[in-house]
Amino acid sequence: MLASASAQEIYNYTVKDDLGNDVSLADFKGKVLLIVNTATRCGFTPQYKEMEALYEKYRDQGFEILDFPCNQFGQQAPGTIAEIHEFCTANFAIKFPQFDKIDVNGENEAPLYTYLKSKRAFGGFDLNDDLGKRMDGMLKRQDADYAKKSSIKWNFTKFLVSRDGKVLKRYEPTDKMADIDTDVCLELNPVTSSIMARRSVRKYLDTPVEHEKLEAIVKCGINAPSGMNRQPWVVRVVENQKLIADVNEVYKKANPEQVSRDPGFKNMFRNAPTLICVCTPANGGGELDAGLLGENIMLAAQSMGLGTCCLGGPVRFLLSNANAKFFIDSLDIPTDYKLNYIIAIGYPDEQPEAKLRDASKVKFIR
């Protein structure tokens, strides 16, 4: 998967190991990382045991924990790094790499932590959890506005970093290790990693998508399951830039106010340079199968460093505006099929954040 330049920035940082040697984070390219600030005399110190179990579970799959002891919270990491390392190995048998003591907040904070906090701000404690309530109350007594700041709040704050260097999540010390385990598992698997990373992209580079990639992506699409293997879809891939530009002129004339309100407007297809048009039987049916095909296409595109957005609005315009008929005609759709939806596809020029998913809508019947 291609990573953006901003995602790769983490590999520019150098830290010191427990022996004082410089270590470039570029040494960890291609690995899923959990970066954590720790302390040996904290109520959360037993998390070392859980972290070591997580490390042993996933280390052979490309997972690393980077441990940075920090004495800024209650002075709970006293002693030298050598003493801290001896304590952690004797009491928790840790095998993941441990680095020199650092500050994670303030004037002398490690540049790595300045970067991590800029990518993932404090998201709050779970106030339905007693421990989360206690942490919130303690910190509010120290600073009523603490939650508005991105600073590290306490020992054992963790950051999850993808194989390509993107800071994915921040976990507070009260977050459950079981949830972190699930996220690590998803990120280590290339299929589930693509699922979790895919976002709807609405800004694209002008760079054309290579034809070979499009062929591979569409092949993934048509290998989606369908009822009785009927494959009730017709797919048209539009690479012709003049065709896209010509129909876009029709759209602009029909929607001048809407276009003028969008300073970044390039075309009616969310500015994408390439389109994948998915058609289904005109008399109905095939929508579920076509949906599975589209999901395959979007996930395959994600895995190849491309962005996508599933579009319905442009379809309604194309079918309702007589001046756009030439575009539909150019697709050479069989007479017993209709255009159902369009997937915009291209190299992304943005990295949208994930929107919250409502896990309460899932129930396990056991």
What does this entry look like structurally?
- With 366 residues, this protein is of the alpha+beta class.
- It is built from 13 helices and 10 strands.
- It has helices spanning 5-8, 47-58, 81-92, 111-119, 130-142, 177-188, 190-197, 211-222, 241-254, 256-260, 287-303, 313-320, 325-330, and strands spanning 14-16, 22-24, 32-38, 63-69, 158-161, 167-171, 234-238, 274-281, 307-311, 337-346.
- It has a 4-stranded mixed β-sheet, with helices on one face.
- Helix 2 (47-58) links the parallel strand 3 and strand 4.
- It is elongated, with a radius of gyration of 25 Å.
- Residues 1-5 have low confidence and may be disordered.
Q: What would the principal axes of the Cα set say about the shape?
A: elongated
The pLDDT mean sits at: 96
Q: N-to-C SSE series?
A: HEEEHEHHHEEHHHEHHEHEHHE
User: How many individual β-strands?
Assistant: 10
Share in helix: 25-40%
Quick one: biggest sheet? Answer: 4 strands, mixed
Concise summary:
The protein is an alpha+beta fold and 366 residues long. The chain has helices at residues 5-8, 47-58, 81-92, 111-119, 130-142, 177-188, 190-197, 211-222, 241-254, 256-260, 287-303, 313-320, 325-330, and strands at 14-16, 22-24, 32-38, 63-69, 158-161, 167-171, 234-238, 274-281, 307-311, 337-346. The protein starts with a helix and ends in a 20-residue tail after the last strand.
